[in-house]
Amino acid sequence: MAKKIGVTMEVGNDGVAVITISNPPVNSLASPIISGLKEKFQDANQRTDVKAIVLIGNGGRFSGGFDINVFQQVHKTGDISLMPEVSVELVCNLMEDSRKPVVAAVEGLALGGGLELAMACHARVAAPKAQLGLPELTLGVIPGFGGTQRLPRLVGLAKATDMILLSKSILSEEGQKLGLIDALVPPGDLLSTSRKWALDIAEGRKPFLRSLHRTDKIGSLSEARAILKNSRQLAKKIAPNMPQHHACIEVIEEGIIHGGYSGVLKEAEVFKQLVMSDTAKALVHVFFAQRATSKVPNVTDAGLKPRPMKKVAVIGGGLMGSGIATALLLSNRRVVLKEINSEYLLKGTKSVEANLKSMVSRGKLTQDKAGKALSLLKGVLDYTEFKDVDMVIEAVIENIQLKQKIFKEIEEVCPSHCILASNTSTIDLDVIGEKTNSKDRIVGAHFFSPAHIMTLLEIVRSKNTSAQAILDLMALGKAIKKVPVVVGNCIGFAVNRTFFPYTEAAHMLVNLGVDLFRVDSVITSFGLPLGPFQLGDLAGHGIGIAVKDIYDKAYGDRVFSSPLTELLLKSGRNGKINGRGYYIYEKGSKPKPDSSVISVVEESRKLTNIMPGGKPISVTDKEIVEMILFPVVNEACRVLDEGVVIRASDLDIASVLGMSFPSYRGGIVFWADTVGAKYIYERLKRLSETYGGFFKPSRYLEERAMKGMLLSEPSSSRSRL
């Protein structure tokens, strides 16, 4: 089989041409592969010694789909002609309409464009457990090589729309039941069976079926319309702010009403429009932003190798500690969980058990694996077990003296190679490690709650942290299925610092007379899962007060002082934790806005007394979004200016994974650049003239706006990291 990148063709004595795609690791369909396929199919169709054709992928994988790097190039250059012509030229003309039968030999995976090529073949033979799917909508586009037309004709309309809209893949076993796969054979027999199948079609022993011309699974027009109506409702629910789901349904409908080929032409046209949409640009940006986080200058390029982290200790079994322990156990790490007394320890281990149980009940974990994970946990009340740990993660309450005491103790009892990590979300690492002599081993491991579910891990380095410690924690982060983002040491690090104005701005709006439930509703319509007030309820208002004090001290010149949270606590509303905050929380039902909280809000408004002329301000939904998110962009500018992150895209992926900022808007900096630095600067300037220093534009934002530069462009002077 071919090893180098490209497409090869070998014609056997049986008259079967085997065309092989080689582009490791997943045989993605880059431009040279597409040209190679065109050339080989043309050749096979013309050669008189070729009776039939088999298409296969090298190295046990059919194809992972179209090469996403091409999208990135198109977005950088704005040149849509970089997209190769595939759907009609290759898929319809050379493959499906070939006079010689073509059989796809599918193993490992056939995703996106890979599955689309397979569906254009006249039969599909697959090995067990091959993954099949069309995940294009996750990148803001639709299938572009005929997938919207052929999948419904092979598996039925309801199943096809479900697979495409939800980007749901299936295994070849299910594929066979649905009719997508014609035969399932052991990997060792895949090629020989496919060759025989292709010859059987050529010699009339098996039917010569063109997927695009089939109608047996489409049903009547009225049935199809009913299914598409349901699909439109699903699209509205799962993707209210995105164009690709609705566009996809339109294209599928076109093919049902006017025939498959008409649908293929419409698909190609819509695909090109969507590639250039803001949504596709944002989602492709997020895709690459996530990959870029694994490159850290002077760490990942320093010739170091990560050391194995076989045994990890977690100090503190509360919400964070038990979540971190769960994440570690799920990746087969031995975990020592330390607490201060047996009551707390029992509570901590029970939380870990509950986390695993809930994953089993949601079908995310087998009972067997949950049992295995739990057997790796050891609860302790002293440091005896710490003598051979590779890493300690401290996850106790945010108390400086307590953390300093713990770090002094673990430095003495742990081996000299052991990494000493803190899960602090606000306290300066240098202060935590002040009383130790091992400052090069001290690093921040800031998980987001719940730690076994949220995928972001902020790795915080101080000026003393060694490259080895960073590399080790990055490797551990990846092993426990997190996305590690390396950030600099400051109050709130990257994500919490960037988003602290989110709550403050919301409080300001409410004190200016805007309805708090309207604020939440406008922000969730924008695409965040929770508005600022429901988020406050979820975190707990006790924590809110403690954190606010820390931010007030650090960033006092740009905070808004609101008594609202204190008044809430006084009225016995701690948030979700005790069932009442701004919303009422009852088991088994959705949070309900609590209208009686209005009296607390009124009291806060009296105390702040900032309503112009004592009357509520009148704002549009767009103004609410701007007044809440532009201060966040402003703080992101300071984070960029101070070099707290290595690159702007790190802050984008961190905002998507840590704050659930909508990925289809590309992250906080990317979104700001689509809005435009100049517009944001002018809005903030006007707002600061009306409402004071909280909205004052940062120097970085002002400079970028004046020079017409993107906020994300690297500046030459930055480098705290």
Q: How would you describe the overall organization of this protein?
A:
The protein is α/β, with parallel strands linked by helices and 721 residues long. It has 3 domains: 6-276, 2-enoyl-CoA Hydratase, Chain A, domain 1; 311-489, NAD(P)-binding Rossmann-like Domain (Rossmann fold, 3-Layer(aba) Sandwich); 495-571 and 600-707, N-(1-d-carboxylethyl)-l-norvaline Dehydrogenase, domain 2 (Orthogonal Bundle). 49% of the residues lie in helices and 11% in strands. The chain has 29 helices and 19 strands. It has an 8-stranded mixed beta sheet with strand order 12-11-10-13-14-15-16-17. Helix 1 packs parallel to helix 3 (87-96), helix 5 (147-155) packs across helix 6 (157-165) and helix 6 runs parallel beside helix 9. The radius of gyration is 29 Å and the shape is globular.
Q: Do you know the CATH topology of the largest domain?
A: 2-enoyl-CoA Hydratase, Chain A, domain 1
**CATH architectural type of the largest domain:** Alpha-Beta Complex
Largest sheet features: 8 strands, mixed
CATH superfamily of the largest domain: 2-enoyl-CoA Hydratase, Chain A, domain 1
Bulk shape: globular
Gyration radius, rounded: 29 Å
The residue-averaged pLDDT reads 95
Helix content: 40-55%
Beta-strand segment tally: 19
